[in-house]
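Subject: Sanity check before I submit

Could someone independently write out the structure tokens for this chain? I want to compare against mine line by line before I put it in a report. The sequence has 129 residues.
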Amino acid sequence: MKEFDSFIKTLFSTLIFLFFVGFFLSGLSTGWNLKFLFSFVLGYFLMLLDYVLLARFSRKLPKHVALNYFPKSGFLWRYLLLTSILVGISLFTPIDFFAIICAVVLTNLGLLLSIAKNYKEWRGWNTEQ
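---
Independent answer below. Compare away.
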């Protein structure tokens, strides 16, 4: 679990750094358009929420597998939760879906950077123990 905790720490610190960089660059490139920035923050928040829920599930998984219980990932429930938040907000506010797509791309870039940083450490894992 030490390796997993290290990866999660790296992931969230990378995501926080990329948020500030992305927010600043989005603000500069759009002339601080509030609709775009609100949508960017919303998309980023939704992706962070998804990663937090996924990390919570992943933290419990080894204990469940050791007890011969194989839980489902909860992907459907996470998807429905995030979609309902997005649809609910889009009913009452104007959203820029391009900004949400930019936020999703930026969070996935953060995930890829975190994986690249921890890849050497993962290669040394012996999963047969």
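---
OP: Matches mine. For the report I'm noting this point. The chain has a mean pLDDT of 87.
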